[in-house]
Amino acid sequence: MNKIFKLSFIAIAIIAVVVIGCKKSFLETSNPNQLTEDNFWKTEADIKSAVASVYSPMRLPLSGYWGAFRGYQDINALGDDVLTIPGGEPSTIQVANFINDAKNGDTQDIFAKLYSCIYRANLVIENAAKANLDATLTKGYVAEAKFLRGLSYFILASNYGDVPLKISVAQSSSDAFVPSSPVADIYQQAIKDLSESATDLPVTRAAGDKGRATRGAATAFLGKAYLYIKDYGNAETTLAKLLTAPFDYDLIGNYEDNFTDKNEFNKESVLEWVYGPFNSQYSPWNEESGGNAMYNYRPQLTGSPASGGWFKYIPSQFVVKEFKKEPRPAGSDTKFDKRMYASLMWKYSDFGETNTTWYDSQTFDDLWAAVSTSIDRFEPIYKTFPEGKFLNKKFTTAWRNANDGDNYWAAAPSTANVEVMRFAEVLLLHAEAALLNNHPAEALKGINRIRVRAGLLAKTAADFPAAADMMTEIQHQKLLEMYFEQNRWNDLKRWYPDATALKTYMSSNLKQGAQRIENKHYIFPIPAAELQTNNKLSQNSLWK
């Protein structure tokens, strides 16, 4: 995957030319070495680099939707599984406390990045055939672009509601600006793109192309989109395809390997963004210019200052309580759910187990002492720690046990890939769809695969006398399995469609800012900058 992304800056140069248009300079000068729309779209290398550029805005290690400073930071901040440390970036603090508005810089940037993906995808879809490649090759590249466009629209629909629908490249300024379409239409476009791409994408990728979209990734997000619009029949049927041939996905034995660089592109990986050094180290700000570093920035945001991190999050006492709710059976090698040891750090002896160390022999007390000043910024209610003191391990480099491991500017920054879709999520999405489609036996199979990997006993139908009991179990497992993976907020919105009920629930879990939750917070507002630029666009009704 790294090879294809090295080409992306070429396509971006062409995209800039297309945006500017074909007007000639009044000097009528030309440079035969300059890339233009007329001499691009001629070879497979052109098409491949253009496709690579479509991925870029979503996977930027800082500002992409899965990047550290945007989606990872802000979407996670909305949930009740982590608390955001006060005093950080104002835009994130606003989101975390439900005091954001249309001028919020983070939500504006996410919006813009997604439309950048859509624009670039449209260019590929409309121009790929110009290279006169083998029909199958062309179809595959177009399918890849459609997948990324569909994924972008899925994210926009679930996070912004009604937004502009753009499925072709604007030919003039008059058709560049369009009004919002209803969120139902945005979801249907995502479903159309994901469905069509699932037909033409390959089941697997060669070693050098790992990380590019596959049929499995398109199918997984297609099923997720159906679930989000409450089409449980299609959601169950679509997600069930991933449980059988030609797919061979499975849960890997060690849960933590999904978040390190030890076992990348494993059986559980449905889609992951590739990170690692290019030619120039420590320059994460201009990835699209080519040759720059693409290290994983998440450890920097998550870790303790004692490990080189900036410590922007702490596990909520609610999620700790949920992890501790069901101890493992007597005689197990750990007291708690296996996922807890991969997700959190704590002083094991406080709960009757043997202590361990991280980051080249640092104790938990060392890590905690380094964050105490930041924790003091919280209101008193968040500093009582009735469940004990815990820090995040997931998305740090604690697993490496190297000094200063979370420091992006250390000798060896993290090159761990980011899982965008795991098979574990597929199982839980399928279980939810199957249960809501009145197939509890199918739901139970997925629940038990997740439970057994976590070191818990399998359940039987008798454990769930009512469908609501099984739904509670699915929700519990989703919380623990997908902790800190940008899913919690959208799950809660789906499970609590009434804002009053959600406010009550999240307030009971001591989610910061929960008392401010209103219906409008189920989506982000259309950014003010977009409204100023596009005179055909109006603010979503909930935010007027």
UniProtKB/TrEMBL annotation:
Family annotation (InterPro entries): SusD-like_N (IPR033985), SusD_RagB_dom (IPR012944)
Subcellular location: Cell outer membrane
Keywords for the protein's UniProt record, in alphabetical order: Cell outer membrane, Membrane, Signal
The keyword Signal belongs to this UniProt entry's keyword annotation: yes
Domain SusD-like N-terminal: 93-227
Tree of life domain: Bacteria
GO cellular component, one term: cell outer membrane
Limits of the RagB/SusD domain: 280-543
Protein name in UniProt: RagB/SusD family nutrient uptake outer membrane protein
Organism for this UniProt entry: Pinibacter aurantiacus
